[in-house]
Design brief:
The complex is a heterodimer of chains A (398) and B (410).
Chain A (H helix, E strand, L loop, with lengths): L13 E5 L11 E7 L2 E8 L7 H5 L8 H5 L6 H16 L5 H29 L3 H22 L8 E2 L2 E2 L7 H23 L3 H7 L7 H6 L5 H4 L7 H4 L20 H25 L18 H6 L1 H12 L7 E9 L2 E9 L7 E5 L1 H6 L2 H5 L4 H11 L3 H4 L2
Antiparallel strand pairs in A: 1-2, 2-3, 4-5, 6-7, 7-8
Helix pairs in contact in A: 3-4, 4-5, 4-11, 4-16, 5-6, 6-11
Chain B lengths: L1 H6 L1 H35 L15 H11 L10 H20 L8 E3 L2 E3 L11 H22 L3 H32 L4 H8 L16 H14 L11 H4 L9 H26 L17 H18 L4 H23 L1 H30 L5 H34 L3
Antiparallel strand pairs in B: 1-2
The chains are: A mainly alpha (398), B mainly alpha (410).
């Protein structure tokens, strides 16, 4: 339980309980603000209002079953969560995923990054009063969700990335759908920039607000766009490439101002970079080829084989009743989620269920920096800062 | 009965006018919310209200009914008297200010009496001062609401808005001084007539040209006065939940809402009167054919409504919309057929058109701009608007003095 010292003696301050139900805490974040007029003297984030026990639940599921739980963690980045979990399990099993599946994974995760940044931009803009941007962003996000639906049958909780590959082959017409999106999106990003980048009020609200020095950012182990806005060019896609990211050519936008405006510019630039990556992935993905690793006993067999081969039927039965048992050991894998470094730690004791699953969630760790960002600033800046560190409460309280 | 009416004709006429104006203002308010939602929606590539009635035209009614029947809890620990007084005060003052606005130049002669459009006498020689006095009092509604709610978000909202309204009040008043100097009167009617000094200049004779700086300051300060985007800090939803009216619900909330929209209308009226020639036509006075413009616009609009209505998807819409369109067209036709009426509606038509344009600008800003921060708002008001409006006053007085000195103009 968090307690806050109320104003005593000569200090004339007011304690404002911002959240957990508040229009712009992006979920159920509670911040105790000690205010002197409109200036924040002290800020204490209070977490745990959205605790779902996802990590604990994973311990009671087989390795394949736990995938659906990861979807619900960072609900703006379900594919990224799937990916990091599957990469960890694959590392534990020593599985090699076919190239085609890797490229499709990259494409989907980058689409997801754009959609996540769109939601971020929209909600951040509406927090600062620019209502229209919100709806424009959601209009484009809708197109991405349609692509997800096409691929996976689901708009948000996709569970598309599976251990050893993907759930389904891409459907007919997927290439055209992605092409259409790639064609439309650049002009739409320009549109947001027209509304915001040069807008005097927008600049006034974000420039110089929520500064954090690169040293502090590293010390607080921040990651993602927030860190890159502080001038540290660190991105897991470059630092520890996974899923064939080393084969893709893209830039790492960085800035040195380390304020809300810089974080905004970084994310907009990242959307454009993601489009570049998707374009390259689209060229790399062949029309035919395997999407699952060749690992009987881990990957469910094809339907046809089950009807003709005894072995396949046995494997199928085993996978869906007992699950598979990796060798005992521990793995830790990180990827670059839209919010920063998303890590997955899995400990196996040789049974079909993980001994421990832990996620290093960027939202939770970046949120630590919030008091540093907002103390001494105004209430309005609190909103801007919560917005630009881009937290998803589902991920904060796994 | 008749003798009573004759003896108290003034009183009766005023009462009727009050009821009529109240009705009109409240209806316009309701449809202003519809208009705002519709326009903003289309700016944001969505439809806006379209379920209740054709094109959502009955939405304001539904909203009104909802406001009336919502439960109206009074939070524990509020200062009861002030808590109830605040929305009343806000609404009453907003409605009072609109009563001071003249809507047309000529009186209409009915039942043997000259009836002016507008409640206050048109020759009220303190017109603009009285208006500012009433609107300045409007801050009490907001500040008291914030204070009486005994809650922290409303308190912050109330503080913000008192500071904001008082600061911008200065710039607002100063920016008008230029106009007053040019007209030489506080009387709103005289201010308009001064802009028709050269009837042949039409739109070029309006105050907005010589007083552009004043208009710039006035409009921005006025938006801040009415707590609208980008100056909607007192009710900044993403920061203060709902600001000063967080603890108000049901009709008490509606009263704040109506007060806000009424002041939008008042400010738009003032803008048109002070800077855009009020009821003056933008065309030179000799272009008599322009007097048919209102009827032409009405008829065309009515025909468009009919055309749109017959293709409407619901049966109700296919009945109501063409009916509405026919009524509008008929109104336009009446104006064409009755020259006296046509002459009479010229003034109100132009005034209302200008008000409409300003209301549209309000909505437009809401769809476009982010919100200022508190300190930036204060800096903007004190460091930019106030000095600019003072410069405007000085320059205007020098020009007027120079004119009198060297050209002997009055």
């Amino acid at each position: 339980m968090t307690t806050v010292e109320t104003a005593v003696g000569t200090a004339k301050t007011m304690v404002l309980n911002m959240g957990p139900q508040h229009p712009s805490t992006h979920g159920v974040l509670r911040i105790l603000l000690e205010l002197d007029g409109e200036t924040v003297v002290k800020a204490i984030p209070d977490l745990g209002y959205l605790h779902t026990g996802i990590e604990k639940s994973c311990e009671d599921k087989t390795y394949s079953q736990a995938i659906t739980l990861t979807d619900r963690m960072d609900y703006l980045n379900p594919l990224g969560n799937n990916l990091v979990y599957c990469l960890a399990v694959e590392k534990l099993l020593g599985l090699e995923v076919p190239k085609r599946a890797q490229y499709i994974r990259v494409m989907m995760v980058e689409l997801q990054r754009i959609s996540s940044h769109l939601v971020w931009l929209g909600t951040h803009a509406i927090d600062l009063g620019a209502m229209s941007v919100f709806l424009y962003c959601f209009r484009e996000r809708e197109e991405i969700l349609k692509i997800f639906e096409l691929f996976t049958g689901q708009r948000m909780m996709t569970s598309y990335i599976r251990i050893g590959g993907l759930a389904l082959d891409p459907p007919v017409g997927w290439r055209q759908a992605v092409e259409r999106f790639l064609k439309m999106m650049p002009s739409r990003v320009d549109e947001y920039e027209t509304l915001l980048t040069e807008n005097r009020i927008w600049i006034g609200r974000t420039k110089g607000v929520g500064y954090i020095s690169p040293e502090d950012a590293i010390a607080l182990s921040m990651s993602g766009p927030t860190l890159r806005a502080a001038g540290v060019a660190y991105d897991n896609r470059k630092a520890f490439p996974y899923s064939s990211y080393e084969e893709f050519d893209f830039d790492l936008p960085t800035r040195t101002e380390s304020d809300c405006y810089a974080r905004y510019l970084i994310r907009v630039a990242e959307m454009r970079e993601s489009l570049k990556i998707i374009r390259q992935a689209l060229d790399k993905i062949s029309n035919e080829g395997p999407i699952k690793a060749d690992a009987p006993g881990i990957i469910p067999p094809q339907r046809e084989k089950m009807k003709t081969e005894m072995e396949a039927l046995i494997y199928h039965f085993k996978i869906f009743t007992e699950g598979f048992s990796p060798t005992p050991g521990e793995v830790f894998v990180t990827i670059e989620s839209p919010r920063g470094e998303l890590g997955c730690f899995i400990a196996s004791d040789g049974s079909p269920k993980p001994l421990r699953v832990h996620f290093r969630s960027p939202s939770y760790i970046n949120l630590q920096a919030l008091p540093k960002l907002i103390e001494g600033q105004l209430i309005s800046d609190v909103i801007a800062c919560i917005g630009t560190i881009d937290i998803v409460l589902g991920e904060v309280d796994r | 009965m008749n003798s009573f009416l004759n003896a108290n004709a003034e009183l009766v006429i005023t009462l009727v006018k009050i009821v009529l104006l109240l009705f009109i203002v409240l209806t316009v308010n309701a449809y202003l919310t519809w208009f705002e939602r519709k326009v903003v929606a289309h700016m944001q590539s969505r439809w806006g209200p379209h379920r209740v009635g054709p094109h959502g035209l009955l939405q304001p009614l539904a909203d009104g009914v909802k406001f009336l029947f919502k439960e109206d809890p009074t939070p524990a620990g509020v200062d009861k008297l002030v808590y109830y007084l605040a929305p009343l005060l806000a609404l009453a003052l907003a409605l009072t200010s609109i009563a001071l606005i003249p809507f047309g130049p000529e009186p209409i002669r009915l039942f043997g009496h000259d009836i002016y459009l507008g409640i206050a006498p048109p020759d009220l020689n303190i017109g603009i001062l009285a208006l500012f006095a009433v609107t300045a009092l409007g801050v009490y509604g907001v500040a008291l609401a914030g204070w009486a709610s005994n809650s922290k978000y409303p308190l912050l909202g109330g503080l913000r808005s008192s500071a904001q309204m008082i600061s911008y009040e200065l710039a607002l008043t100063m920016s008008v001084v230029g106009v007053l100097l040019m007209a030489g009167s506080f009387n709103l009617k005289k201010i308009i007539e001064a802009q028709a000094h050269h009837p042949e200049w039409g739109i070029l004779g309006w105050n907005v040209w010589p007083q552009f700086l004043g208009f710039f300051c006035f409009f921005i300060a006025a938006v801040a006065e009415t707590n609208r985007v980008p100056f909607d800090l007192p009710e900044a939803e993403s920061e203060l939940v709902a600001g000063f009216h967080t603890e108000y619900s049901s009709f008490k909330f509606a009263m704040f809402f109506i007060a806000e929209y009424t002041s939008m209308i008042t400010v738009s009226c003032l803008c048109s009167i002070l800077f855009f020639g009020g009821w003056l036509s933008p065309f030179p006075a000799s272009w008599l054919f322009t007097h048919y413009l209102p009827s032409a616009i009405l008829i065309l609009f009515g025909l468009w409504v009919i055309w749109d209505g017959i293709r409407y998807e619901t049966t109700f819409g296919r009945i109501i919309l063409p009916g509405l369109g026919a009524a509008i067209t008929a109104l336009g036709a009446v104006f064409v057929l009755l020259p006296n009426v046509n002459e009479f509606i010229q003034g109100p038509f132009w005034l209302l058109s200008k008000i409409f344009v300003f209301l549209f600008v309000y909505v437009w800003m809401r769809g476009t701009l982010p919100r200022f921060r508190y300190d930036q708002l204060m800096a903007f008001g004190w460091k930019l608007l106030l000095p600019l409006s003072i410069v405007n006053v000085i320059v205007t007085s020098f020009v007027i003095l120079a004119k009198m000195q060297w050209w002997g103009a009055k």
